[in-house]
Amino acid sequence: MIYDITRRITSSLPVWPGDTPYQVTPVMRMADGDPVNLTTLTTTAHLGTHADAYFHYVAAGAYVADMPLEAYIGPARVVTVARVDGPLRPDDIGDIEGVERLLIHSAVSDLAEEWPQQFPYLSVPLIEWLAGAGVRLVGLDSPSVDAFESEDFPCHHALYRHGMVNLESLWLRDVPDGDYELVALPLKLDGACGSPVRAILRS
User: Fold this and answer.
1) How many angstroms separate the CA atoms of 119 and 156, rounded?
2) Is residue 39 part of a domain?
3) Of 2, 183, 192, 197, which sits most exposed with the smallest number of CB within 10 A?
4) In a domain, 159, yes or no
5) Sequence-ordered list of residues with C-beta below 8 angstroms from that of 192, at least 6 positions apart, any chain
6) 18 within domain boundaries
7) pLDDT confidence of residue 45
C-alpha cells in the first residue's frame, strides 16, 4: 500500500509569511489554438512538503542538488505525538531502536490549507538523542523544525552538525504509526536552498 504524504500544491497553499506563494502562469493554451499547454511556475523553494538544503541556513552549506540522496529513501517510522505546540523531547517520541528516518505526526496534519497557529518543533536535546541512535532524517508535518519566532535556528544547525537532513510540512493524516519505506527525493536544483518533494510511504 502507498500513502501519499505530500501536501497538494495550490495557489492557496500557505507559505512562510513573506515568502513567495505558488503561481501558475499560462504561456501557451490549447484552448487558444496553441499546439500544447505550457505553463511557467513561480514559487518558493520551500513550497508545501519540502526538503531543506544546508545552504538554507549555512552560508557554505550544500545546495539542495548536492544533498545526500540516500538519506531521503529507505526505512522510516511514523510516530504520533500528543504535543500540539512547543519543543519536542525524547519522551514525546518513545522507542526508536533501529530507526533511520523518523516522521513525526502531530495535530498539524489535521489542518487543511491553513497556516498552523501553533505547532510542535524539534529541540536540540531531541536531535542529539536521535543522532546518537543513528537517525539520519527527521520529518515533521510542522512548517519548521525550529520555533516560528526563532532567528538563530538552533535545531537546523544541530541537524547540520550531525549530518542529518529534514523534511517539513508532511501530510500524515490517516497514516497509522509504524514502519514503512520512505521515498521523498528533492529536485536537483543548483543554487537552491530547498526543494519540494513528492513524499510517499510504502508499507
Assistant:
1) 16
2) no
3) 2
4) yes
5) 45, 53, 55, 63, 64, 65
6) no
7) 97
**Residue of 168, 177, 184, 165 lying closest to 203 (CA atoms):** 177
CATH number of the domain encompassing residue 68: 3.50.30.50
46 is an active site residue: no
Distance (Å, rounded) from C-alpha 98 to C-alpha 123? 21
Cell of 142: 510542522
Cell for 74?
Answer: 529507505
- Residues contacting 116, CB < 8 A, separation 6+: 108, 142, 143
Instruction: Tell me the residue type at 114.
Output: E
Give me 71's grid cell. 538519506
Strands 165-168 and 178-183: unpaired
Number of domains in the chain: 1
Provide the residue range defining the domain that includes 163. 2-8+45-202
Tracing cell 517539513 back to the chain, one arrives at: 168
More confident residue, 67 or 111: 67
Q: Does the residue 193 lie in any domain? A: yes
Over residues 35-46, the pLDDT tens digits come to 999 999 999 999
